[in-house]
Structure formats: structure tokens, C-alpha cells
Amino acid sequence: MKLFWWLLPGLRLKRYVFEIVVGLVLLAAAGLLFALWLTGDTAPIEGEVNAARTALYLAAAAFALSVVLLYFGVLGLARSIIRILRSAGGAGGPFRDLVLAAARRESGPRVVAFGGGTGLKSLLRGLKEHTGRISAVITMADDGGSSGRLRMELGALPPGDIRNCLVALSNAGPTLEKLFQFRFEEGELEGHSFGNLFITSLHAVCGDFREAVRRAGEVLAIAGEVLPSTTDKVGLVARHEDGSVTTGQANIQRTGKRIARVELRPRPSPVHPDIKAALSEAALVVFGPGSLYTSVIPNLLVPGMVEAVRASYALKVYVCNILTQIGETDDYDAADHIRAIEEHAGGKIFDVVVVNSARRELPPFREGQRFVEYDADAIRRMGYRVVEADLLGPDFLHDPAAVASVLVDLVDQRVREETTAI
After folding, report:
1. Of 359 and 50, more confident
2. pLDDT tens readout for residues 358-369
3. pLDDT (average), residues 197-214
4. What are residue 245's DSSP bridge partners?
């Protein structure tokens, strides 16, 4: 069995190996037929088929067909091997293991993940080990740091969260990943990352932001696709419970006031067909982890987004944050997170809530934050299934492998249940 591992389904190698084998057989047959023609009597005999001349015609046909099969077989096999090596992202190990891992990812579930920032980046790093069919939908209201400067100085769309997610899905190896995350520390470019400048420049060259993101994804050989939730130049506006209004994502995170509602201004165009298509084909839709009001909810404010999510047959999951966020969700528990999403989406939009059950003493650099508490029974009474798991990573954020494992298990469980029902 070890010798014939390449015969396993889903590897996309068998067809090309078969074409090469058949091509070699035909090439050998062409050689034999040509030899028969050389040794045969080529003089025509009236009323009879000349065997030697027939052998020549058959040799020419076999040779032509063998060339075609060998060309496409070798070309296809080479492309598959390159794809596998790029998918490995510089990982070592036996070629057999790399092929099997690549096949596992290519046959993994189709996933659509909504968010932005650190939370989504962490989730994508975990998911890409299980599937290469990921669509990351990114909020486009960032106006802080390098992205904010590019918006202000060039009128550009914010590339920061896009860059982080491209790098998280990258299979191009550590050098390109470090290059995209490299941040200049002096001069006029101080504070800008190379990736932000690259995406902004590519946008200027292409004239279309979605195309620029797609091409950047090709450079980084990403596992799936990164889709901006909108390409309109929008800003985030928060209405606070005290009646005040704050404009701008960065400002909202600094106010420290309890948020009643957020909205996008100006009102963006309807949800893009690419996002609709990804949702219609998805087996899993994930919201979070990430900043509740500035990363997760803004995606749902694009006209038609909520309706497209509800129309999807996929299993829909919310991954609740592990820690509260200073100035945004200071005293929130898991139910508060869910209610905030329901209020902005006009009701339920997911089926399952994943919460972190692990607790450890918080280090000094987490001062001002606390673990997001949860009452599993209360969440169930709200109409959701609750999954409790140890998701805590060493940085007190979500462990990418742990979250991805829980999500993939949920999809597998749903498939088993549907199969049993049939």
C-alpha cells in the first residue's frame, strides 16, 4: 500500500501518471511499427493491403498521439508538483507526506470567515492546515496606523487587515511573509509596512482593489481567497448609550464609552457577487474571533450581507472572544456579544457559539482586561448550541490549531448526522 499511495483519491496525480504511461506505451508501439515498415516490402500489390505501409501509417498516428499525451501528462504532473511544493510553504518532510497533506487541504470543507485584525488572522492560520478552500471576508473601515495614513494622504482603501489575512493564508514561505509584514522604522515611510504599500501600489496599477488583492494573493500563494466586504470608502460611526456619537474606528476604540450601535457611512454598495458565491458554496461560515464592534459587526452592515448569510446552507458558528476589549466590550459576557450581533443583524444569524473554557492568571500586559464569562444554559435558552473548549493560546488569545480543530469537528459531525439521516 505504501508503494501505491499516489493512487489515493484527491491527489490529482493519477491522471497525469496515466497519460505518461499510455504515452510511453504508444511511443514504444510507434517504434515497433516503424521497425516493421523498415523491414517490410513496401512495393504495392494490386488488390491487397500493403502491411508495411499500413504499419507506417499506424506508427505515425501512434507517435503523434504519444507526443500529445506525454506533453500534457508531464506538464500536468509538473504543475501538480509545483502546486504541492508551494502549498507546503517551505515545509520539509517526505514528498509523499507533502502530497497527502496538500490533498487533504484541497478536499477540506469550504469555509467563509468574517472579521478583521488579529482574531481573524489567528483563525485563518489554523484553518489553512485543514482546508485550502477558504474565503476570508474583511472589514474595510480601518482608519488607524499605516492604513489610516494611506487613507488620509492618498485616498486609498485600508490595506492593513487585508495584508494580515493574506499573510495568514500564505504558502509562499517565511521570506515573503516577513517581507509583507516588514515595517519601516525611519524616514518618511516610518510606520508603514511593505505589504500595505505593495497592495496600495498594486491597486493603482490594476485600477481595481479586488483585482489587486487577488494578485497579491497569487504572489503569496494563499490557501483560498481574501475578499474585502466592500470597496467603497466607508467609515465606522458609533452611537453610544449616553447619546454621543464617535466617528472613526480608531476613535471608537479609544473613547471607552459603552456602544449602543455602529453603522457604516456613507452607506456602501450591496454585497459583491463573489461573496454571495462563496457563501452559497460554503460548508462552514465563521464569525470572529475579533473586535466585536470594529471587526465582526461592520461586515454585516453591508447591504444584503445578512440576507446572503441566512440564505447559505452552511453551518454558521460564532467564535466568542477570550478576553474583553478595553474601550469596546469592557464588561461584556458571551451573551452580550451575541445580543449585539443579533441587534445589528435583525435576529439570529448563526447556529453555534464556541466559547473558551480555560482560565489562567492574566499577566501584567493584559491589565484592564478579563476573561469573557459565559452562562452556557443562558446561551442555549437564546436558541444556540454551545461548544465549550480550551482555546487559550500562550499569548492569551485564541490558539489557531485548537479553534480550527473544533470548527472542523463541527463540520464533520454535521456531515455524519446528515449521512445517518439519509
Report:
1. 359
2. 999 988 888 888
3. 96
4. 239
* Residues β-bridged to residue 113: 136, 286
pLDDT in tens, 290-347: 999 999 999 999 999 999 999 999 999 999 999 999 888 988 999 999 999 999 999 9
| Strand arrangement, sheet containing 245-247 | 245-247, 235-240, 259-265
Grid cell 464609552 is found at 257
Q: DSSP characters for 90-155?
A: T--S-HHHHHHHHHHHHTSPPEEEEE-HHHHHHHHHHHTTT-S-EEEEE-----SHHHHHHHHHH-
Average pLDDT of the segment spanning 83-112:
66
Task: Collapse the DSSP code of 257 into the 3-class scheme (helix H, G, I; strand E, B; otherwise coil) and give the result.
Answer: coil
With beta carbons less than 8 A apart as the criterion, state whether 23 and 70 touch: yes
Report the candidate in 134, 103, 108 with the shortest Cα–Cα distance to residue 225.
134
Instruction: Judge whether 148 lies within some domain.
Output: no
In the chain, how many domains are there? 2
Domain boundary among 60, 83, 104: 104
Over residues 143-158, the pLDDT tens digits come to 988 999 999 999 999 9
Q: Are residues 129 and 22 in the same domain?
A: no
The conformation of residue 183, written as its DSSP 8-state character, comes to B
Tell me if 240 is assigned to some domain.
yes
Pairing mode of beta strands 352-356, 315-319: parallel
Asked whether residue 84 falls in the same domain as residue 119, the answer is no
Considering the domain boundaries, does residue 185 fall inside one? no
Cβ atoms 288, 115 nearer than 8 A? yes
Are 67 and 133 within one domain?
Answer: no
For the cut 50, the answer to whether the pLDDT of residue 404 exceeds it is yes
Within a domain: 208: no
Supply the pTM of this predicted model. 0.81
What's the CA gap between 388 and 366, in Å, rounded? Answer: 23
- Specify the DSSP class assigned to residue 365: G
pLDDT at 1: 46
Closest CA to 214 of 194, 199, 232: 199
Cell matching residue 46: 494490386
Q: Is the peptide bond before 394 cis (omega within 30 degrees of 0)?
A: no
- Residue 65 and residue 132 share a domain: no
Residue 217, amino acid: G
The C-alpha atoms of residue 22 and residue 201 are separated, in whole angstroms, by 48
Give the cell for residue 124: 485563518
Range of the domain at 233: 108-139+229-421
> Do 411 and 268 fall within a single domain?
yes
CA distance 83 to 174: 17
